[in-house]
Each structure stands twice: as structure tokens, then as C-alpha cells.
């Protein structure tokens, strides 16, 4: 690949983030992006540059600082802060949030800004993501209201094997042929109390959550998350959507490759 083509690739990638960063942050991001790209092209496959940036736009007037991995986490940033997958359009009083599959904390930061003072419990089983999650909580001054637990949430307590992905938002408790694996802690969805808002991004564990945790889910005013029909199958995805439509007003954000939705409880508990 020519130097000119490499440069064009970098510029195109940065342009997809034009709604996230100010010109100053974009320049800093460019430098780190270039270092990461050069290292990758030199054969350092696991090389990662962590960049801390201040997002250009504010939520509820609140600035957000986010530490993320260059070349790895921009997709999550765009989903939450540009495409607004978890945007709550209705006036709902939210004082507690259960964040299942918190990754590096983008969703937690979004909810903390959207619902100031709300108690937020984050769950993230993968250590590399969890370390950034904790950093993002601290550097945004949220230590009193946001807590993080290094665990997955599913249909049981104990240990589980997680399949790791090169895309750090795609680790899954489902078996993946050829993937590296790791043992992680798992907590039963039924172990949690009542939360006003429950968010989940759990890469195929939706069936376990909806089978085991219906009573917990019904206690929420709002559900927000993803349904991976490509992982759990079209039949299971249809069953989950059918149950959601029975008890919630469901707003579909996008259907491809995963179904992103926000659902509002029809009868407030």
C-alpha cells in the first residue's frame, strides 16, 4: 500500500468521526491514529494507542471526556454519541440504571449526563474493557453515582467461558469456532433489584436474559439494547420482540446487523 493511499485511509476514518471531535481533538486523534496505523502495518498486531478526548458536543450541557482505543472503539462512540441508539425521547423519571455489557463506559457516561444523579450499575466481564470503564468513570467525576462490576450478566451465577473478538465490543458468551477464550464471572439477572432503566449489549445472551429475567425486565420503565438475530436465530429474536411489544411501546432504531431498540413500559409498575 502506498503512503498516499495510507494517508487517504486515515483521513476517511477521521471524517467518519467529524461529529465527535473538535478540530484540536481531531488533530490529537490523527497523530495517535497514525502511530497505531503505522505500528499495525509494521506487524505489531496487538498494538493499541489509548486516546483521551473531550467530545465536541455536550449532553444536557455536560461535557464528556472519554478514553478509548484508537482503531478499536470508534464504532461504539458513533453508535451512542452520533447515532443515538440509547436516546430516550420520552419524559421518564430515571433514578437508577442497570447497564449490562458496559464495554468502556460510553453508555454509562451518556446515561449519567442524560439523568444527572442517577445510580448506575455497570457490568463488564472483560478486563481490558473494564480498565477503561473505570478510568472513564473517574475522569468524569462519577465515582459517587456510577459503580462498575467485572462480570457478565446471564441466567446463572458462577463462571462462564467468553469468546474474545478482535472487535472489543463483540465478545460473547456464545461459543465461536477458533476464537480465543477466557473464564469470566457471571451473575444471575434475577440477583438484581429494581431499576428504572435497563440497558443491555450482550452479543447473543439476550435469549438467556429474556428467558430468565422477565420479572426484572418488567420492573423497568425503559429497556434499551440490541437483539442479535444473527446469533440467537430469527425465531428467538421474533419471540423476544413479541414479548416486548406485549408489555412495552417499542421504538426500533435500526435492524441491521442487529436490532437496536428503546422500549417504554406500557403500564408503569
Low-confidence stretches: none
SS strand fraction: 15-25%
Radius of gyration: 19 Å
According to CATH, the fold-level topology of the largest domain is Rossmann fold
- Overall CATH class of the largest domain: Alpha Beta
Distance between the termini: 59 Å
What summary fits the major beta sheet? 7 strands, mixed
What is the count of structural domains?
A: 2
Number of helices: 9
Mean pLDDT, to the nearest integer, reads 88
Q: In sequence order, what are the helices and strands, one letter per element?
A: HHEEHEHEHEEEEEHHEHHEE
- Named CATH architecture of the largest domain: 3-Layer(aba) Sandwich
Q: Which outline best applies?
A: globular
Assigned CATH superfamily of the largest domain: Vaccinia Virus protein VP39
Share of helix among residues? 25-40%
The order of strands across the largest sheet is: 5-4-3-9-10-12-11
Explain this structure.
This protein is of the alpha/beta class. The chain has two domains: 1-72, no CATH class; 84-265, Rossmann fold. It contains nine helices and twelve strands. The chain has a seven-stranded mixed sheet with strand order 5-4-3-9-10-12-11, sandwiched between helices. The chain has a three-stranded mixed sheet with strand order 6-8-7. The chain has a two-stranded antiparallel ribbon with strand order 1-2. It starts with a helix and ends with a strand. The mean pLDDT is 88.
